[in-house]
Amino acid sequence: MTGKSEKLFSLLGNQPVIPVLKVKSAAAAVPLARALAKGGLRLIEITLRTPDALEAIRRVAGEVEDAVVGAGTVLNPKQFDEAAKAGSKFIVSPGLTGSLISAAAASEVPLLPGAITPSEIMVALEAGIDFLKFFPAEQAGGTTFLRSLASPLAAARFCPTGGISALNAEEYLAVPNVVCVGGSWVAPDDLVRDGKWDVIESLARHASALKAI
Ligand code: 3PG
């Protein structure tokens, strides 16, 4: 892997699953991040899809030493900068645009952009980004599609996300060009709302032990 993709890869370590979080209240973010980290999922993605998301990132970055927090659903350079200033250690986008490539090039914070088609992947590789989000994974062709990219686009590594759960994560992890998977299943809305941190910790523990099959 190259440059900042390598940096993100190092932050991830051996973690097989990146929790994708929609945090409705900033107050819940800290206990949520703690529960996930205790269960072995230190690196988490808080999506910018709720009004509290940036504050949630700020609090986790400031208060949860064990967590590595990143921002997801970043669509443009303004959001990239806001998320980086809030303390995001990495930035995730569902896709890849020229302006996001420029924002990432000007920042120390690594970008994990979405890329599915060979052309999108080639644009990312040209920009020096070889760790990519494959989204929406199940709907876009799943493991069959990913396997068919491995030979022609051998430099690309993926974090498939979208429609992945404990039921099919290991099939994805078995694909040679897959590094990890992303998913929301480890932090369901109702468990977060009810503050069931012990249940979330145990979902995280299970997810952090998933392996390629
Ligand atoms: C998303 O960005 O919504 C992620 O892909 C999460 O998808 P999931 O809810 O299907 O895991």
Quick synopsis:
By secondary structure, the chain is an alpha/beta fold. It has helices at 3-12, 26-38, 53-63, 77-85, 98-105, 118-126, 137-140, 142-150, 169-173, 189-193, 197-208; strands at residues 17-21, 43-47, 68-72, 91-93, 111-113, 131-134, 157-160, 181-183.
SSE map:
Layout: H1 3-12, E1 17-21, H2 26-38, E2 43-47, H3 53-63, E3 68-72, H4 77-85, E4 91-93, H5 98-105, E5 111-113, H6 118-126, E6 131-134, H7 137-140, H8 142-150, E7 157-160, H9 169-173, E8 181-183, H10 189-193, H11 197-208
Parallel strand pairs: 1-2, 1-8, 2-3, 4-5, 6-7
Helix pairs in contact: 2-3, 2-11
3-phosphoglyceric acid (3PG) binds next to strand 8.
CATH superfamily descriptor: Aldolase class I
Question: What is the overall pLDDT average?
Answer: 96
CATH architecture call: Alpha-Beta Barrel
Molecular shape: globular
| Biggest sheet layout | 4 strands, parallel
Q: How many independent structural domains?
A: 1
Please state roughly what percent of the residues sit in beta strands, choosing from under 5%, 5-15%, 15-25%, 25-35%, 35-45% or over 45%.
15-25%
- Rg from Cα: 16 Å
Instruction: Output the CATH topology.
Output: TIM Barrel
Look at the structure and give the CATH class.
Answer: Alpha Beta
How many helices does DSSP assign?
Answer: 11
The N- and C-terminal alpha carbons lie at a distance of 24 Å
| DSSP helix fraction | 40-55%
What are the secondary-structure elements, in order, as H or E? HEHEHEHEHEHEHHEHEHH
Strand order of the largest sheet: 3-2-1-8
Class from helix and strand fractions: alpha/beta
